[in-house]
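Hey,
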Amino acid sequence: QVQLVESGGGLVQGGGSLRLSCAASGNIFSIITMRWYRQAPGKERELVAAITSGTDPHYTDSVKGRFTISRDYAKDTVYLQMNSLKPEDTAVYYCNAYLSDYDRILRLYWGQGTQVTVSS
C-alpha cells in the first residue's frame, strides 16, 4: 500500500507565503507524476500544479508566477511553494501521485488534504 501525507497548511495573511509538502511512502517502485489540486467550498477540485520527470512543471494560470512546484526524488516528496497568496487561494490542497509499485502496477494515490486559509 502507498500513503501520501501532506503538511504545511495553515492561516496566512494576504501577500504571505506558505510551503506545502507531500511525502509518499510504502510500496513504491517509481513515481511518474506528482500533482497538487485544491478545492474551495462549493467549487470543483482543480489542478494547481504538476511535475513529471523530464518535463517542465505545469501550472494553472491563476498561480503562475506565484507558486512553484518542486520534487525531492530521493525522498519521494513534492513541495508547493506559495507566495503572494490571495484570499481566493483559500482551499483544501490535495496532492496525488501516479506511480508504479513493485508489482509494476500503475495507480493513482491521493493524500488526505491540508487546509490553506488566506485572510484579506
